[in-house]
Specification:
Elements: E1 2-4, E2 7-9, H1 12-20, H2 25-32, E3 37-38, H3 39-45, H4 51-63, E4 67-72, E5 79-84, H5 86-89, H6 92-109
């Protein structure tokens, strides 16, 4: 049994999918590989995600220590940036492999 952030997983693959699984988490992480993004910039990259879903996924990734949310309050309007933490950066090779696999499937198997 594996435990991460108070949750138990039956195996290491289950833990990984628990952290990055779902329709939008890997997409969010893929876009953050290049660097910090504001909420609206993420929305532009993912126009079909609802605001509620994006907010929930960002919150979950932040709770798991994968992304960091930085709020700038020095002057209005409020500015919020999201970026990968050091733990999140360890996922870059995995996320890139997932993206590369998707590219190769489209190239080789799309009709």
């Amino acid at each position: 049994m594996y435990t991460f952030n108070g949750k138990e997983y039956p195996c290491c693959a289950s833990l990984t999918m628990g952290v990055i699984g779902g329709k939008w988490k890997t997409v969010i992480l893929f876009h953050l590989i290049e660097g910090k993004l504001r909420y609206n910039e993420l929305r532009k990259h993912m126009p079909s995600v609802t605001e509620r879903t994006l907010s929930l996924q960002l919150k979950t990734l932040e709770e798991d220590g994968i992304i960091e949310r930085k709020v700038y309050t020095s002057k209005p309007p409020l500015k919020v940036e999201y970026s990968l933490t050091n733990l999140g950066k360890t996922l870059i090779p995995l996320i890139q492999s997932i993206a590369d696999w998707g590219d190769s499937v489209v190239e080789k198997y799309s009709k």
